[in-house]
Structure formats: structure tokens, C-alpha cells
Amino acid sequence: MAESSTLLCYFATIPEAWPWMRQTEDGNGAMGRVQFVLASPASCSFPSLPTSAETSSAWLVVFDEAPTGFSTTVPRERRILFVTEPPEIKKYPRSYLGQFGTVVSPYDLRGVERRSMVISNPCLSWHYGVERSSGKNISKFSNLDELRTFPMPEKPGLVSVVCSSKTATSAQRTRLAAPNLGAVCPAPGFVSLPAGNLEACAQRILSAIKNRLGEARQAELAQCRNWMLKTINIFARAARMMETALEYCRRLPALCKSEPKLGVSRDNVAVMYRQVRGEGK
Fold it and tell me: Which residues contact 106 (CB under 8 A, 6 or more apart)?
């Protein structure tokens, strides 16, 4: 069977209402030669129906969990799971992880085969440019090209800190308890800070402020943004994994029968264990 020039990939996740497609080149799921399609067809204006060749060689990317009732004919080897939560927050049973040929996580999960485990950034969804209006998440840009030219917001404050306020884990509580250097940071800039020496950190920050490094390093800021678009964008990352996959993986036929993708809830885990033991549903 000849391989299609377009790689079709279904994207499944629980927060379907999020403006996911803005993280693709055209805002409709295109990323190079890969075409992503949301599990909910209404959420994506797909330019044309996939051909039979594209469907038979399709991939599946699951961000955390797929919607309830989701099923697929994509073989296990072409399923990619991005694990989004630390072990202290959410447990991913071995039976759930075993449904995927590749598992991407910043944590080394013992329940995953070594050949399937990819320890890396989980590519969380981007909140930048999203506003909540009338109960919906509205994005200020619709695709990556618009984001690349998106104007930098005015900076009225002296220092900007992006930090989660979550306190569920010890690491999160430690992060919020860190000393606040905002009082000595009246301007942005890139500066290397020595670990464990707060006084030296403050002195280097003050030196950077006087030299106005933020203004002088706009080129580095642009490079940083381009790096982020390629590295922590789930669609760009998944597209690279698909394009560099082994030949046998790309040529595996689709399953004859659609398989349900069960989640990590107690009921779903119980179903998976019964299936493993051959007890059916």
C-alpha cells in the first residue's frame, strides 16, 4: 500500500472546547505534511474529507485522556499519549498507558515499556492570548502565523512573573514560598543567576537593569519564541514524531474493528482489567 503524502492524525482530549487549532499553521489543523483533526468534528473546519489511504495510515494523539465513548481503528504503535499531570495529582494505571505505543511525560513512568517511554516536556496547552467570554474560551489569534506577528502587550509593571498558584504538591508549595525578588527587578532582561545565592542574584539583576538587556536582546527574544513554537507546541512535537517514526510503524494496517479508548477512572480501569483477563465487558 502506497503511503499518502499527507499524514492524518486524530487529536483527542477531554477539554475539547479549548481553542486547540490556533496552535497549528493554518488554524485548521495543518502542520507541515500532517493534518490534525479534533475528535469532535464540530470543533475543526477540516478543509476536505480524508482519503481512504490517509485513514488507513492515520495516527492518534491523546492529550491526557480522550473524551468518553471515544474509539479508534488506529493501531497501538501509532498512538501517542501526552501525560499532563504529575504522579502526586493523577495516577495513570499501567493498563491505561499500555494502550499507547508512545508515552510522552516529564516523569519516568514504571508502567511503560522502555521502548515506548519518551521523557520530555508534555506540551501543555497555551493560555497566552485566551480570554473567557460568555462561558467560552476566545483566542486573540487563530493560527501560528498570527501569533508570530502578535504585538507584545504593553508592560506597565516593573516585573512580570508567570507562576501557577496551585498548592496541591510539595513542589508547588515550595515554588510559591520562594523569596520574592520583584522589589529589585524594575525591568526585564536575560541574566544568568547563581543557584542558592540570593544576594548575588539580586546584584546581577540590578546590573542587568542598568544595562537595559531587555531592549538589547530583542533578537534573542525572537529566537526564544520560535524555539517555543517548535518545542513545546504539542502539534509540532507530534508531527516530528510521526515523520521520524520507523517504517514498520507507519505501514501497519488500521484495525479491522474500532477499539474504545478507556480513561483512568475507576470504572474504566476495571473494564480494562476484565478485558486483559478475558472476561469481556
Answer: 119, 120, 121, 122
Same domain for 204 and 268, yes or no, is no
Domain tally, the chain: 2
pLDDT of residue 118: 95
* Res 115 pLDDT > 70: yes
Which residues 6+ apart lie within 8 Å of 116 measured at CB?
Answer: 100, 101, 102, 103
CA distance 252 to 60: 13
Cβ–Cβ under 8 Å, residues 245 and 102 = no
Q: Does 166 map to a domain?
A: no
- What pLDDT does 4 receive? 56
- At which residue does the C-alpha cell 460568555 appear? 134
Digit-coded pLDDT (tens) for 136-148: 999 999 999 998 8
Question: Where does the pLDDT of residue 49 fall: very low under 50, low under 70, confident under 90, or very high at 90 and above?
Answer: very low
Average the pLDDT over each of 2-11, 135-144, 201-210, 235-244 and give the range with the smallest value.
201-210
pLDDT for the residue numbered 181: 45
Contact 74, 269 (CB under 8 A): no
Domain interval for residue 19: 7-126+233-276
Query: For residue 188, what are the contacts with CB-CB under 8 A and spacing of at least 6?
Result: 155, 159, 160, 213, 214
Q: Quick check: helix, strand or coil at residue 54?
A: helix
Q: Is residue 132 part of a domain?
A: no
For residues 260 and 69, the answer to whether their CB atoms sit within 8 Å is: yes
Q: How far is CA 33 from CA 107, 142, 232, in A?
A: 30, 19, 19
